Amino acid sequence: MAAVIFLHTFSAFGSLSGISGSDSFMLGVQQAVKFGTIGFFLISGFLMAESLDRRPPLEYLKRRLRVVFAPWLLWFSAFLVLSLTGDVVHGRLRFGSFTSAAHFILNRLHGCLFDSAYWFVPNLIVALCVLLLCRRFLYDVRLGFALLAVSLIYGLDIHTQWFALPSHTEALFGFVFYLWLGAWAARNFRTIEAWVSHIPMWNFVASIAMAGLIAIKEAELLLAAGAPSPLSTLRISNQLYSVLVVLAIFKVRKVAWPKGLNVRASTFGLYLSHTIVLSLLLRVATRTFLMNLADEPWANTRAIALCLGLGGFVITYGCSFALTHWLLERPSLGWVLGRLATSRTRGFPGATGPLCGPEPPEAIRLCKKAGPGLLISNRNTPSSRAEQASLPPSVTIGRSACRSDDKSLWPAGRI
Known about the structure:
Layout: H1 2-14, H2 24-32, H3 36-54, H4 57-89, H5 98-114, H6 120-133, H7 141-160, H8 176-187, H9 189-197, H10 201-225, H11 236-252, H12 263-287, H13 302-328, E1 366-371, E2 374-377, H14 385-389, E3 395-397, H15 399-402
Antiparallel strand pairs: 1-2, 1-3
Helix pairs in contact: 1-12, 1-13, 2-10, 3-8, 3-11, 4-5, 4-6, 4-12, 6-8, 7-8, 10-11, 12-13
C-alpha cells in the first residue's frame, strides 16, 4: 500500500516543481514503485484460494460485496460529492441547463472513478466474478494461459490503440490473470516456495533492475509516440517487473514497517481514505504556500521534485493512517472499513480481519510461520488441546493468522 500511495503522491506533488512528467528521473522514480497494483491482484488471489475451498462461490461473492464493495461505495460517493462541491463553489458546475449539468456530472463521475485509485475495487470485483464463473476450471493452466493472453493483448494495445483505452484503469479484464495466478500459486505453494528458495537473491535483484530499465525505456517510447498512458501498469515490461518484485518480496519475508504501526489492520482504510486526503492536501497546497511554485527558477529541479514528492507522501500516508486508526478504534464505525460487527467478536488476541470472532473447531487451521511477519496456513489441524499445546513455539494457532477469507482483497498489509 505504501508503494501505491507514494506513486500517487509523487506524481501529484512532484509535478508542482515544474519538472516535466516525461523527465527520465520522474519516470524512473515512478517505475520503481509501479508494482503495487499487480502485487495486490497476485496476493489477493493467493488468499482467495483457501476461502473458495471453504465457502460456496455465491456466498463468498456476497460476503466480498458486503465487506469490500459497500465501504468502497461509501468512500467513492464521498469523494464524488467533494469534487462536485468544489465544482459548484468555483463556478464550474451550474444548474441553468439540466442537460449540461447532467453531462458535467457524468464526466466528473467518470473522472473520479478512472482517474483515481477508486477504479481498483470495481475492477477487482469483475475479476473475481470471472474466476467464480470459471470455478470448475480455476486451477487449470489452460485457463491461466487464456487469461494471460488477454493481459498481453491489453499490453500491446497501449502501443497499437486497438481499443483506444486511455488508461489501464479502464482495462476491465486486464488483471484477471494476476488474480488467477495468485490463486494457482496458493494451490501449488510448496512447489513455488521450493523454487524461489533455490534462486539466489542477486538473481532477483539483477532481473528486477533489467526489467525496470526495459519498462522505463518502453515508457519513453510510448511518450515519444504520443500514447495516452505511457506509464500504464499493463505495459508488458511492467507486468514482468511487478511479478519479479513480488517474488523477491516473498523471498525476503521481512516486516518492512515499524513495529508500532498496525499496518496489517489498516491497509483497506489506507486505500479508501488516501485519495480524499491527497485531494484535500493538494487543494490547500496549491492555494497557499505552493501556489505558482513552478514559476520559480530555483524550484525547477529534480531535488525539489523529490522533496515535494517525499513530503507529500509522508503527510498523506500519516493523515490517512491516523484517520484509519481512529475509525478502527470505534467499533460502531468499523463497517466503513469493512469490519463487520457480529455476536462472535471475542476474537483471538491480535485478530485483524473484518470479522474477529473465534473459528468453528472444524475451520481452525494449523499455521506455520514461513518468515517474520508472514503466516501461511496449511491443511493440518490439531485434533485436541493437548496436541495444540505440544506444538513448537514457532507455530501459531488462531484466527488472526488464518482468516484469509476475511482479508483476501487487501493482502499487502494482511500477510
